[in-house]
Amino acid sequence: MRILYADDMWVNQQVVKRMLEPKGVTVDLAEHGIAAVEMAARARYDVILLDRMMPMMDGLEAADLIRASLNTPIYMVTGDEELSQEDISYPVLQKPITEEMLMRVLGGVSTVEGGTRTVSDKVRRMYLEEMEELLEVLPGLRTNDPALFITKVHGIKSASRQVGETGVANLAEVIELAGKKEDWESVDIHLSTLLEKMKSRIV
């Protein structure tokens, strides 16, 4: 079996890859919707998973383009709890993704034990490395590219939930919602707190 998973956060990609590859599933990865559309046109996939919010092209637009020429099952992956099946025309997987979710999607019988949310030391290190990189670029994005800034904060929210960093995830969600409302004063207030919280995880 071969699947395509598109997500702009590296740690989210690696979590899914590490869950499925030991079960014999080939996992191809894309960082944004444009890459996902191109890869879906070149290779045959049994299932396609698309993160809803990505830079360059989001998951919904990519899904519509893929659906125009292929009948491959497509699932929308999101960290937005308020997004329901009624909001979009694709099946929804809510982050954090678990092994049971993926096995249901792939048609398998879930026999995994309760530790499906366990995060390996290697995945946690990858998460911290990704957060360290984002620490350097977030302030500049806030000033120069607000739309990409919101996308990256959304990614921090989803990746943090995936590894169990609920405090970071909740703060990122506050900033994301304020940014969408263009409440930049609130964004700046909470951004400094988020940066300090992220630094404390990395040290």
Q: Secondary-structure map with pairings?
A:
Blueprint (H helix, E strand, L loop, with lengths): L1 E5 L3 H11 L5 E5 L2 H10 L4 E5 L7 H9 L6 E5 L13 E3 L4 H7 L15 H24 L1 H17 L3 H15 L3 H19 L1
Parallel strand pairs: 1-2, 1-3, 3-4, 4-5
Helix pairs in contact: 1-5, 2-3, 5-6, 5-8, 6-7, 7-8
Summarize the structure.
This protein is of the alpha/beta class and 203 residues long. The chain is built from eight helices and five strands. Strands 2-1-3-4-5 form a five-stranded parallel β-sheet, sandwiched between helices.
Describe the fold and architecture.
By secondary structure, the chain is of the alpha/beta class. It is 55% helix and 11% strand. The protein contains eight helices and five strands. Strands 2-1-3-4-5 form a five-stranded parallel β-sheet, sandwiched between helices. The protein starts with a strand and ends with a helix. About 5% of the residues have low confidence.
Question: What oligomeric assembly is this protein in?
Answer: single chain
Strands, total number: 5
Give the overall shape: globular
Strand fraction: 5-15%
Q: Are there runs of 5+ residues with pLDDT below 50, and where? A: 108-117
Indicate the radius of gyration in whole angstroms: 17 Å
Span from first to last CA?
A: 40 Å
